[in-house]
Amino acid sequence: MKVIDLQINLMNRQSKWPLIKDEQLYAELTKHFKSPPIGLNKSEEEMVQELRDYEIKGTILGGGWKVLGWNDLGEIKARNDYIGDLQRKYSDAYFGFWVGIDPDWGHRGLQELERCIKDLGSYGIAVGGSLTGVPANDKAWYPYYDLCSSAGVPVKIWVGILAIKGKVPLWTENPIPYVDDVALKFPDLKIICAHHPWPFDQEMAAVLIHHPNVYNEQHGTSPKYFSEAFKREINSRIQDKIMFGSEYPQLGYEMLFKAWEAQGYKPEVLEKIYRGNAQRVLGLEI
Predict the structure, then answer these.
(1) How far is residue 88 from each of residues 11, 56, 64, 84, 121, measured CA to CA in Å?
(2) Where are the domains of the chain?
(3) Where in this chain does the entry annotate a coiled-coil region (predicted)?
(4) Could you state, in chain order, the average pLDDT of each consecutive group of 10 residues for the chain (286 residues)?
(5) CA-based nearest residue to 60, from 91, 30, 93, 96
(6) What residue spans of 34-174 are helical by DSSP H?
(7) N-term to C-term CA, the chain
């Protein structure tokens, strides 16, 4: 295993429970990523085989936000069960998933998160402030953070610009104050920020430097688009805080690896990004 991928999406239409249920949104995002149809039409086995070929082991985005078309909690539970089965069936390719759920499900949502952690081997809540309309520092998320902290599992908080353009706000995705507040309020909670954080990349670097419990995986953007200032920080002060995330199958591994390796990062920094940091933070023996 050479690479740990912290963001794999079940986008393919061969999947029983694809990430995006809303067909119009699915079409828009496919166009945005210029996703090749062959990648999105792969079977479960074909996706897993590609992970094996590239020596990748990864986590899946589970659950289901309402903005993606998931408005029935029973269906969200069924999707989580399906993903739990996938990671058991293909344990050489998958090792966990993140539970995306809107906070307005209230106690029922909290119960589902607890079930996923205890029974399905998931990680913590996936917090999309923009995707749910509830910023990460809103008290509606606090019970979820408390649960994850007590269970010893990390959470994911989305940062930076989203592929869903013009449909959701951007202001909720700024690490300052939204991640900064959560890190301060829950110092024992491991927070992995999801996405490359542009246009808030300098704010993200500051939060990574300031808070020992905050990290950032870079899915959704080719590294060739990172600012020079952020690249310098990756090569120096935040090299122990950056992790690899893809957005597979929308973004392909060959393209991403070539882009990462063309930016002038030190070999030891790339090793940390590809594998070392995630192994250390998640306590992985893989």
Answers:
(1) 19, 16, 20, 6, 9
(2) 3-282
(3) none
(4) 90 61 58 53 86 97 87 94 94 96 97 98 96 96 99 98 73 97 99 98 99 98 97 99 94 95 98 98 90
(5) 96
(6) 37-40, 44-53, 73-89, 106-120, 129-132, 142-151
(7) 7
DSSP structural state of residue 249:
T
pLDDT at 30: 60
What is the rounded distance in angstroms from the CA atom of residue 170 to the CA atom of residue 65?
Answer: 17
Predicted confidence at residue 37, as pLDDT, reads 47
Annotate 190-224 with DSSP letters as a single string: -EEEES--TTSHHHHHHHHHH-TTEEEE-TTS-GG
CA–CA separation, 95 and 275 (whole Å):
14
Question: Token pair for residue 210?
Answer: 């300031």
- Residue written as token pair 């990062």: 265
pLDDT of res. 276: 98
User: What's the full length of the chain, in residues?
Assistant: 286
d(C-alpha 228, C-alpha 247), whole Å? 23
Joined together, the tokens standing for residue 276 give: 């070392």
Nearest to 63 by CA among 45, 81, 47: 81
**3-state DSSP assignment of residue 180:** helix
Amino acid at 178: Y
- How many other C-beta atoms are found inside a 10 Å radius of the C-beta of residue 74? 7
pTM exceeding 0.90: yes
| Nearest residue to 109 (alpha-carbon basis) of 76, 81, 131 | 76
Q: How far apart are CA 171 and CA 173, in angstroms?
A: 5
